[in-house]
Sequence to fold (196 residues):
Amino acid sequence: MKYYLEITLKEEQTCDLYTLWSQVYTQLHLALVEVMDEEGRVTIGFSFPDYYFDEIANLGFLGSKCRLFAANKSSLIQLNLIERLSSLLNNLHFSEIQTVPSTINGYASYRKLGKKTSFERQARRHAKRKGVSIEEALAKYSEFEPFRGNFPFVRLKSFSTQQSFRLIVKKTEETELKTGKFNTYGLSAKVTLPEF
Fold:
């Protein structure tokens, strides 16, 4: 990833950080859905510079920043985030699109955690719903990790079922760059992003 754009969420009395995250992340997700490939993957990944999770206290939060990474500027420009998030501009600060610094602190992956259920069960449900083979469904859920603990999350609403759900995010520190694609939430268990 060569370029990034940083969004800072500014909490106010009229809008708390959790509500703001829900609104912002919904629009980020929709922007990624518009640019996904035929496999439902994207080339833009998200990191959270202020991410915090304390295993002992079993408590975490995303912080107030989101960095969007891409291999080229045009991918970030194509998202048209200023217009997409125009109703929230008073609560957001956008950086310019910048080059990733040459000196970094390491790498991290950010993955979506699943509910307390097995990935085999999720894969069977997916195969039945989408009419695909169980092998294809198992491949889709290869990044699945069951949710345990109070990891940081964003409350979102499914557009297909209209049900509210938690998008639970787990950060894993990594030592090397690993390339690939992300889901439409900007997350991947396998791809790493620079930390700085």
